[in-house]
Amino acid sequence: MRRNGNSGQILLIAAFIMASLLLSAQLYILEVGKISGDTNSDALNDFLLSVKLGSRHVIIGSLANISNGGTRNILEQNLREWTEFIGSQYLHGKNTVNFTLEETTPYSSGTWLSWGTNGYGVSSAYADFAHSLAGRETNVDLAYSVNVTTALLIASVNRRLNETARQVNLTMNVLNEAYPALAKQITVYYRVSGTWLIPDFANGYTLQDYGNGTYVASFTAIAPLIDEVSVHVIDCRGIYVQANATSTEI
């Protein structure tokens, strides 16, 4: 049950490109306003918002990379490069963004990965930011936090069909920042006598998507007893999370 680190790297590059384009577009609007003497609060607010959204994109891309097998220090490295990039783009004053990675338990270096056996899994990244923009026409100090969290809750029940087969039903809920979210990929495993197996069409495997972050999988396992089930999810942001649980017999 291995993860694809290459997909995480691709998503990270895409996040940097998106964040850079977003910032560049808003910076252009702000600079044009300064040249024409038509600078207004809307343009400034949009620029500040683009920095915040760009920071979020970088954290999402970093978490996608880390959760798919990348090293945890990539978050700090990427945010450092991002904040340096922000400072280098503003030519009419001083534009500084500082960040602090969350260290409060359960976070370490801004990340929290917990893929337990109690039916709950979480992949999360958290950082605080301080944005200071100073120039002849502006003087802004803005503090904000960015928390990106993909969570997975699973519950499984099974019933005996005969001496060698069981019907397994598995309910899964995917969440982004505690709100229902969609999954791009779901892989279900079940363990029999210490061996992990993936149900397929031969098992009558079905996966129902309710469109609200809830998914239900059903399949027939050729086994007198199910040891454990495991669900591996990649959400629509490319963030990976997994959870294991005991399948309860009914």
What does this structure look like?
The protein is an alpha+beta fold. It has two domains: 5-149, no CATH class; 152-249, Immunoglobulin-like. Helices cover 30% and strands 44% of the residues. The protein has helices at residues 5-36, 41-67, 74-89; strands spanning 93-101, 111-115, 120-135, 139-162, 165-176, 179-180, 183-192, 195-197, 206-209, 214-221, 228-235, 240-245, 248-249. The strands form two sheets. Strands 1, 2, 3, 4, 5, 6, 9, 10 and 13 form a nine-stranded mixed β-sheet that branches. Helix 1 (5-36) runs antiparallel to helix 2 (41-67) and helix 2 (41-67) packs antiparallel against helix 3 (74-89). The chain is elongated, with a radius of gyration of 23 Å. The two termini are 28 Å apart. The model is unreliable at 32-39 (pLDDT under 50).
Structure, briefly:
With 250 residues, the protein is of the alpha+beta class. The chain has helices at 5-36, 41-67, 74-89, and strands at residues 93-101, 111-115, 120-135, 139-162, 165-176, 179-180, 183-192, 195-197, 206-209, 214-221, 228-235, 240-245, 248-249. The protein folds into two domains: 5-149, no CATH class; 152-249, Macroglobulin (MG2) domain (Immunoglobulin-like), CATH 2.60.40.
